[in-house]
Amino acid sequence: MRNLKNIRRRVINLAKFDLPLTATTWNTSSDSLICAFGPSETEAVIELRRLDGESKNADDLSLLSSWDAPSPHPDLAVDKIVSLHYFPDTSSCCLVLAGGDIVVVRESPLPGEDLIEIVGSVDAGISAAAWSPDEELLAITTRVDTLLYMTRDFDNVTNVTFTAEDVKASNHVSVGWGKSETQFKGKRAKALKDPTMPERVDEGVLSHQDQGNVTIKWRGDGAYVAVNTIEQKTRRMIRVYSREGVLDSVSEPVDYLEGPLSWRPAGNIIAGIQRLNNRIDVVFFERNGLRHGQFTLRMSAEEVQKLKGPIDLEWNSDSSVIAVSFEDKVQLWTMGNYHYYLKQEIRTLTKSSTATPARALWHSEKPLHLAVQASESVQVLQYAFTVARGPLLPPYDFGSVAVIDGTSLKLTPLRLANVPPPMARHEVRLEESAVDVSINASGTLIAVLHDTALSVLRYDPSLKPLEDPTIQGIYPLPLCSECISRQICFRSENEIFILSAKKASGLDVIHQFNMEPLTFGDLRHDLEEIINIHPSVDYQSLCLQGGNGTCLELRNTQTISDTQEHLSGLNVTVNPTGPWVELAHIGKESIIFNLSSNGQLCANDRLLVRNCTSFLVTSAHLIFTTTQHLLKFVHLDTEHNLEIPPDEPETDERCRSIERGARLITATPTSYSVVLQMPRGNLETIYPRALVLTGIRKSINAKEYKTAFFACRNQRVDMNILHDHAPEQFMNNIPLFLDQIKKVEHVDLFLSQLREEDVSQSMYKETIKTNELKRAINGNNNISTTQNNSKVNRICDGFLNALQSKKARNPQNIITANVCKSPPALEAGLTVVAKLREAGDESVERAAEHICFLADVNQLYDHALGLYDLDLALLIAQQSQKDPREYLPYLQSLQEMTPLRRRFTIDDHLGRHSKALTHLKEADDFEELKAYTEKHELHSTALDLYKYEQDRFNAIMKLYADFLNPRNRFKEAGIAYEYLSDHTSASAAYFSANMWRESLSSATLIPLPEAELSSLALSLADDAAESKNYFDAATIHLDYLHNVSTAIHLFCKCFHYAEAMRICGLHRRPDLLSAIDTGLVEGSATMSELLADCKSQLAAQVPRLRELRLKKETDPLAFFGGEEGVMGDIPDNVSIAPSALSTSGGTFLTRYTGKTTGTLGTNVSRKTSKNRRREERKRARGKKGSVYEEEYLVNSVGRLIERVNEVSEEVQRLVEGLLRRGMRERAEKVERSMVEVVDACKGCVGEVFEVERTGKLEGKEGQDEDETPLGADGVLFDALEQAKKVKAAPVVKQFARLSLVG
Fold first, then answer.
1. Are 104 and 117 in contact (CB under 8 A)?
2. How far is CA 955 from CA 381, 918, 1133, 1203, in A?
3. Which residue among 69, 313, 522, 897 has its CA within the 20 to 30 Å range from the CA of 122?
4. Separation of alpha carbons 250 and 238, rounded Å
5. Residue 1289 predicted with pLDDT over 90
6. Residue 1199: Cβ within 10 Å count
7. Chain-centroid distance, C-alpha 620
8. Bridge-based pairing state of the strands 663-668 and 673-677
9. Which residues does the UniProt record annotate as the domain ELP1 alpha-solenoid (predicted)?
10. Residue 1120, Cβ neighbours under 10 Å: how many?
């Protein structure tokens, strides 16, 4: 689908020189051309001249050297240059002459070297010569049928003689590649014929125009060389030799094969010429000598008969173009999908009939750079592959692509007819070969440029059915004899611009051709060279690209008159300069996108990417492909706001993976498609998410919901975007949505796909930065939501409101809107079905089927029963798979019941026991109600039902209390009994709940005898003391048992010494102060022991924790492996890097992470819960040396700090008590110990709980959320994940010292 566009062309007329041009070669270091003139029959002299890269006339050719070259053989009238090659590394030329001399010409000879030196000579004469691609070997064939190999120093290393026995080197067996003999024609056709044997076998008959020349061609890698010679004057034979001079193969006989030969650099085929009576074919051979297809040159039989001169073949360096040279022209052919296209025809501009035939010479490093030599001229040309596509702006984006194929123009509107090449939807025959083609802004005019004329075709792709293009007119080009036409393009509808080069001066000129009215004029410009003219994306401007990178813009408001008006407009320098350019207008700013040959894509002077392979620009996107085989979309914006998406096709809609080597052909935003061409030539049409979503968003913004809906439906886009992209607008335009989406099924499809996720913020997040403010304005924040902020319910309610006026036409949509709510409003949907049944609507069956399709039929049946509509329940049951023998008897039994009993039975069947209880109350069956309450534990409901009937309320309360007591809910039971004034039962319940205040209070209200009350109080005091609630126990002994000594003892045990002293004074018992002193001594001893334990624990655990963390940081393998020095035992010559084989079974690291590939996941999944429990016990123990030790130590220190905070007040009361009783030394010791422990805790908090590290981890939490492993590995995985989480360090409570202690 690509054409060859001529971007540079220089014509140098050599008529001023006396000697004819006989050979040329490239100097690849400076892109200059080395030209050899002579010798001729009149003057046996050879001249070497250099044509620089920017030279445009013959006066610029500088003379390198010249010398006499008489013919050394009598049978050779004039010597001939067989090979001319330039060596850039030594700045020297090597000439191989037919007379046998090998001459080296040095531009800058070193001391002791000659300017011109004959370095070797072959006495027998030389028929052909060729240097290998690496310039290390020179292959020479002599006139006595020998093949010589010479080194760069011209030492002969191989000498091979051509013999008749060489034909036996290959035993050819044709498999009929591409032949009709191998095609299936039915079982009776040629049933006994071997398909590998053709009907006619060629004998190798010589062509009557064969000139007997010998050709040598190397393969691109220099491993093989092919030699085309005449064998025994009877047939042409192509011999293939290895680099060592060993014969590899010979070609099969081919009739009328001639001397030209060219080995494709890719190495797969060798091209030759077969001249038949009525046609000329370019035939292909494999390296083994077998035929491998051919193509026919586009010539009539008369032209074939007139053609008497030789034909030459030459592949370019990347094997994409083959040049076929005739006497007066050179044709450039390309191949796609096994079809050869004639892309360009270059005339030699030679007037003499005896001139040397044309010859094409490709640049060895620049694939599309070539020189065409003739006897009196040389042309230097540069081409670029381009796509002649139509407009990309809707509504004219028909995807029209024009392909040049000689005198045939292939046209295909890819949006309407995706015809694969080499076929085309339309094929137009032209008067002469096309040079370039362009399509206008509406796609209705196609301009085809020829050498001497301009053809304009009329085409309307909007017609149905499509009609072939018609030639509107053929217009001769003025001054075509003085200019060479190169490019053509449209601006707007009817303005055509033609880029030409003057033959005499080489200056580039631009002609303007207006269709309406018909005028022709020239454009003056200040550019020294123009390599490209191209319309802008909107066809409102014309972009002129200069050779130095300068780009000029001619807007549509500027006109060109016959007065040669100067060009004005945008002036941007693009660096590096590339042959592919697009001009886009972003607001008032113009941006020129330029792609260089090395893959650098620029926007004006800003480099965007370095790995681009093709690009195009639509009204909304810059689309390009990369060498990583990705298709990327860039939202058009100002130059510095263009954002290149990352290489993340899985997460970014602007990036998509494509097939290797794919190139962009065109894009059709109207159909959301992009057409790519694969390297072989076949087309692939894709629908990238970026284009699809852009089109959908555009339709939503324009309130074209029907277009957006069908785009979502066809491209499998989540339909939630119809709401989520513009929620407020959608909710306000639901009636418009229903009017556009008329089909009931389509509305149901939309409602059934609703979900709570906001897809515009997740899977279809907008990637245009300028729309963020718009999203904030039109987002969900400004919408008043109901029903727990549910998006689905809000939309369904909106549809229900809009469908109120369309109930008769859209009952199915109403049902869908109710059922699709979250949770589903099944009863509302069933109500719609019930109303249809009551109205006798014929659609009731369809409605029932529809609701059963949307929801679980069993749930629908239960909800239908819950509506107490037996007919509706029967209708739903008939749509289910239920057995009629199951539901019919049940429904019949319900029909026979009274209304209240029926409702009670239905609610009881459905498990709606609270509702069933209300029906029993309405039936006034209190005994059954009590039994039903006890059966289903409905006491709270029953109490609420009888809250205004005190007697029955008390009866239910009694049932509830009796229900709570045996279920160990003693507190609630006690309150219930006390509500019923049953103090005996209440006291017992409170006693069981260890509520001593309430129990003793109820006991005094019975009232209990004093002895029983004392017994009860003693039991409660013992229970409180046993649970270490000494303060409550002391209070009971003091208030109810009047035991002061026991109370004081208990107060001392809970460190309430001040209260104990107060009781002594209150009851006038100074004798009990000795008991308080004893309690103080015991308390100080206990507290001192506790604080000593805390200090020793900190002293042991903090250093150990420090050691573990240092080990984990310096040697993590040893830390997780649980082995000391595990890294030290590994030899230096053993790799410990994981590999696909070594990690398949897991390593000692994967034992603790569970994050591995291969079979480890399967092994982990087989871990049993028993292993997990065992591992959990290991984690709880935190055994020394295990991987859980660090976690255990951190938790242990945390618990210690909590304990220190708890005893802080107790220590303070203890110190005060000791001072009050004169025990200052003990008080000082306890306080000092407490201060030391508190300071130690404060000092280690930062280190133990890693306060600085947890602050750094706050932003990283939750980044790695791999699947949690199972079994024992999951325990440590949980531990490691827990360690990553931010854990707040505990606060150490401040201990207030007593100043009296000192």
1. yes
2. 111, 17, 89, 50
3. 313
4. 5
5. no
6. 12
7. 20
8. antiparallel
9. 689-894
10. 19
| Core vs surface per residue 557-592: b (16+ CB within 10 A) or e | eeebeeeeeebebbebebeebbbbbbbbbeeeebbb
791 CB-near residues (< 8 Å, 6+ apart): 723, 727, 754, 756, 758, 780, 785
| Tokens coding 72 | 């050394």
Region 726-753 average pLDDT: 93
Kindly tell me the sign of the dihedral angle through the C-alpha atoms of 395, 398, 399, 400.
negative
Phi-psi region of 194 (alpha: psi -120 to 50; beta: other; left: phi over 0): beta
What's the rounded Cα separation, in Å, for the pair 437 and 732? 50
Tokens of 1039: 């208030």
Pairing of strands 377-386, 270-275: unpaired
Alpha-helical runs (H) found in 51-118: none
Angle, in degrees to the nearest 10, between helices 983-992 and 1010-1026:
20
**What does the longest C-alpha to C-alpha distance in the chain come to?**
158
pLDDT tens per residue across span 246-260: 999 999 999 999 999
Crossing angle, helix 811-819 and helix 791-802, to 10 degrees? 160
Which of 204, 210, 245, 209 shows the shortest CA–CA distance to 227?
Answer: 245
Contacting residues for 43 by C-beta, under 8 A, at least 6 apart: 18, 19
Radius of gyration of the CA atoms of the chain, in A: 49
Residue 775 has what pLDDT?
Answer: 47
Phi, psi of 424 (to 5 degrees): -150, 155
Give 891-903 pLDDT, tens digit per residue: 888 888 888 889 9
> Amino acid letter at 1299?
S
Element (H, E) at 10: strand 3-13
- Which runs of E-coded beta strand occur in 316-423? 321-325, 329-336, 339-347, 359-362, 369-373, 377-386, 388-389, 400-405, 408-413
**DSSP structure class, residue 524:** B
Tokens at 1272, concatenated:
């024992």
Helix (H, G, I), strand (E, B) or coil at 341: strand
> Do you find a cis peptide bond into 576, omega within 30 degrees of 0?
yes
Six token digits for residue 1277: 């995985």
* Cross-sheet strand order for the sheet of 257-263: 257-263, 270-275, 280-285, 291-296
Q: How far apart are CA 335 and CA 318, in angstroms?
A: 13
**Which residues, listed in sequence order, are joined to residue 263 by a DSSP beta bridge?**
270
What is the separation of C-alpha 717 from the centre of its chain, rounded to a whole number of angstroms?
A: 17
Whole-structure pTM value: 0.76
pLDDT confidence of residue 87: 94
Place of tokens 């001619």: 554
How sure is the predictor about 883, in pLDDT bands with cuts at 50, 70 and 90?
Answer: confident
Closest-CA residue to 103 (of 4, 216, 168, 23): 23
For residue 1157, give the 3-state DSSP assignment: coil
Residue spans of beta strands (DSSP E) within 597-680: 601-603, 606-609, 612-617, 621-626, 630-635, 655-657, 663-668, 673-677
**CA atoms of 612 and 631, how far apart (whole Å):** 10
Residue 1113: exposed, middle, or buried by beta-carbon count in 10 A (0-12, 13-18, 19+)? exposed
* C-alpha distances in Å from residue 600, one per residue of 577, 605, 608: 9, 11, 8
Please report the sign of the dihedral spanned by the C-alpha atoms of residue 318, residue 320, residue 325, residue 331: negative
Nearest 5°: phi and psi at 280?
Answer: -125, 125
> Following CA atoms 962, 964, 965, 971 in sequence, which dihedral angle do they give, to the nearest 10 degrees?
-130
In this structure, how many other beta carbons lie within 10 angstroms of the beta carbon of residue 401? 27
Q: Which residues contact 1110 (CB under 8 A, 6 or more apart)?
A: none
Distances (CA, A) of 970 to 717, 772, 963, 976, 994: 60, 61, 10, 10, 9
